[in-house]
Amino acid sequence: MKIKVKLYGELALKYKPEIEIEVRENALVNDVLTLLKISENEHHLLINEKKVSKDYPLQEGDILKILPVVYGG
Length: 73
Prior knowledge:
Layout: E1 2-7, H1 10-14, E2 18-22, H2 29-36, E3 43-47, E4 50-51, E5 63-68
Parallel strand pairs: 1-5
Antiparallel strand pairs: 1-2, 3-4, 3-5
């Protein structure tokens, strides 16, 4: 099945701001993170504008946003 992945910050520069990838049925967000070699500890994960964990199951047509955690004050 296909999903869209929207990347921000350094990840957008490393890959592209938006990519479409094919994942297996019953894939989890963590499968995408592993494929792209992205740490979930340093990023916010959203599926269709809803914050999710790495164990969230993906569905055909989902839009996964991976946003970097911003530090500072």
